[in-house]
Amino acid sequence: MTPVTLIFSAFGPYVEEQRIDFSNFQKEGLFLIRGETGAGKTTILDGITYALYGKSSGGMRGEMSSMRCQFAQLQQETKIEFIFSVGGKTYKFFRSLRIRKKRGTGEIEYIPQQNAFFLDEQGQWAPFFENPGIKNMEAKAQELLGLSYEQFCRVVILPQGQFENFLIAKSDEKEKILVTLFNAEKWHKIADWLCSQANDQLSKITARQTAMLESLRQWDCDTFTQAQEKQAALLKEVQQLTEKSLVAHKNLEEQKQRFDEDNRLFELFCQKEKAQIQYEVLTQRQEEIQHQTDKLEAARKASALNGMWEELSRAKQEHENRIHQERQAQEAFVKARELLKLAEAGMKEIQEQKQSCTEINQRLLKLKSLREIYKTLEETKLQLQLIVRTVENAKKQWEEAQANMEKLAAEKEAVLVKKEKISKEHIRLLFENAAEALARELKEGMPCPVCGSIHHSSAVKRQERQTENFALSQISERLEHLSSRLQSLETELQRQQEQERVRRGECERALSAQAAIAAQLNALSVQLDGDIPDAPALEKTISLLEEKTVGTEERYTAAQEELLQAQLAFERRKTIALHEAQELEKEKETFLRREKLFYQSLSFNGFLGKEQFIQARLSMEEIADLEKQLKEYEVLKNTIKVTLSGLEEQLAGKKKPEIEAAKETLAALEKDCKECDTSLILCQETSKRMQNFCQEYKKRQTELSKERESQERLRIFGVILRGDKGISLRRYVLGVMLTSIVNEANRLLKKVHGGRYQLVRTLEGVGRSRHVGLDLEVFDANSGEKRPVTGLSGGEKFLAALSLSLGLSSVVQSRSGGIQINCMFIDEGFGSLDENSIYDALEVLSTVRGSHRLVGIISHVAMLKENVPCAIEVKKSRRGSSLAIHG
């Protein structure tokens, strides 16, 4: 991780926005964070950890709300923005804290906001989340950096008093950090995966062995030898069942031949019985056949009279049609007579209307003269409606102006009361502030200008007065705001009073205009026609009267034409009605003549009447079908008679066999044969399956033996890598990494105290050997012996921890596959060093120059200020701290 910028405001002791551009220190690599004690140096590191993880760098300051600046205004938000790069990509973590008061109680509540962004290909910040929570942000930081909060504070930000934690950490603690830094978890996962694969293979082998034993039990065997013995017994049983099946099939064939002969004779007896039954049935239908023969004869006679019957039917239809036509002619004649009467009445009415045209013309002249009066009346009504709306609007605006004036007067009164109250408080604070200033200048023995006393036991505390000064400033601002508001209210009140006067005048003028138009409207109403209310009704009446006068001549001419046409139609319908009556008499005579001739022919052919003739009539298809049925009956009867004679001659002297007993005997033999075949097939299938089972079982035994050998080799290899009986592969790899780190640290320690101390790995351990190899000791060249790192003095321990941290950063940066650590922040620790040790530490830190790494040091030691030119200076004041960048 490489920091780019850090921006924060209203955070810790910082009120205004502060910005740190870490690129200013990239060339030098080493920079100092300096300032007075309590100015806010560590707050810079807190800004980074709060932005990433929502926690302070030392883990002792609680939630972000505890870091809000006490000097910030309520409306000012606390903001932190940290931009950094990892793996060539740039990210931004943002957090803010807004304050608001709860309604009703007035209690203060904090509204947090946070989000994480990445810089996309277009150079725009794109969010990772829509509405993230605190845990989402912490998880995203750990994902991007590869470090948890605790690991980040041990590797990147070394808090005050915890700098040597990595140096003195136990093997297990170091392992957790190194696993993350070098992505060494994969070696442990590989070993676990191999062991898991071996266990899976063992489970599969065991399951297959169990399945094989279970398959033996399915054959009622406990061992494979028993299964082989059972296979031999099945082969012997197949041979015995084959011989038994051959005997059964031979007996069945002999019985089938005897059954076929008996069955043929039985069928002949059945045919004879069936023919006898059919002949008896046909004999019983003789009466029915005779009736059908009589019906056919009658149908043939009726068929000869069909032509005469059709002529009679046509004559009857023509007679009925003529009756209908004669009736229609009579109805048309009556209708023509009615239309003639209506035309005569209409002519009479038109003649009367023609006489009244003179009166209508006189009324038209009078109504047309009133058009101008009605027009003026309509315009006056419209003016009156507009005036009424104007009056209503004027009244409404007048009332609104009065209401606004009253509201402004009330608000003005409330502001005056509030201003007076705040003015009293302002005067009180001014007096107290003056008293505090006076008390601050007084010293013991100096007479007080107010009371004359030379003892001043009631001196005001400075911190309390700072708070009162702040309150006095706020009250002054509120007084200025209220005075400004009062002046604007006074101006607005005067404007509303002027507007109310204008609205009142407009309302009075509108009422006067309304009264004048109403009087004009009454004068016009007297001149109107009593039956016509308005101008549209007048125009409608004129139009109706004009239509009456204009269309009178046309209607008179049309009525004359209509009367002439009605007279002609009446004469034409009268002639048609007489003609149709004459034709009806002729058609009646023809129908009666043909009817008489038809009934004479019926009597001659033996029919008693028309109904009997109609019943006897059949179509040609029906006659043909009936003839066919009678012929088929005779043929069938003769055929059955001949067949019956032949069967009686063939079966003479023979007895009908007992076919059911023969069937039972044959079925019993077939059943025996089938049972033999079924037993044989089942035994053969069982023997074959048993044979296949034995072959497959033997094959599986061979495969299972090979799989057991392969599984055992895999298990032993996985156990060795996991370190169940020694050092694990992951611990071994981490040991190699730690050796590289120690070597790099020792290279730096050669510059400390003349190279007296060197760090070495401890290979001995207590308990299970797989958990050793990552502890550290220090080799003292003066004594020639090793001793624990905890035995170093505070300054020596600091220098060793500094070398180890720089070595860790250098090795991690040079290795691929792990995380990238391009920065480090050290919070204090230099205060415990003497002058020579500080020079040694600076010599060690000088190695970061040109390595593309950053090391930030928080310290107030003067020697560091002289030797580290790049710095972030924290300036402390009564209104909060600020930053100055020196690069």
Features:
887 residues, alpha/beta, Rossmann fold, Helix Hairpins, 6-stranded antiparallel β-sheet, 21 helices, 66% helix, 10% strand, Nuclease SbcCD subunit C, P-loop_NTPase
What would you note in describing this structure?
- With 887 residues, this protein is an alpha/beta fold.
- Among the domains are: 1-156 and 822-887, P-loop containing nucleotide triphosphate hydrolases (Rossmann fold, 3-Layer(aba) Sandwich); 306-367 and 535-604, Helix Hairpins (Orthogonal Bundle); 371-528, Helix Hairpins, CATH 1.10.287.
- The protein has helices at residues 41-53, 134-145, 149-155, 165-168, 171-181, 185-218, 224-284, 286-304, 306-355, 357-369, 371-441, 462-525, 535-550, 552-604, 610-616, 620-650, 659-722, 729-749, 794-814, 835-845, 862-867; strands at 2-9, 18-21, 30-35, 78-86, 89-101, 108-119, 125-127, 157-158, 757-762, 775-780, 785-788, 823-827, 854-858, 871-875, 882-886.
- Strands 2-1-4-5-6-7 form a six-stranded antiparallel beta sheet, covered by helices on one side. It has a six-stranded mixed beta sheet with strand order 8-12-13-3-14-15. A three-stranded antiparallel beta sheet has the order 9-10-11.
- Helix 6 runs antiparallel to helix 17 (659-722), helix 7 (224-284) packs antiparallel against helix 17 and helix 8 runs antiparallel to helix 16.
- The longest helix is centred in the middle third of the chain and has 71 residues, at 371-441.
- Mean pLDDT is 80; it is low at 459-463 and 766-770.
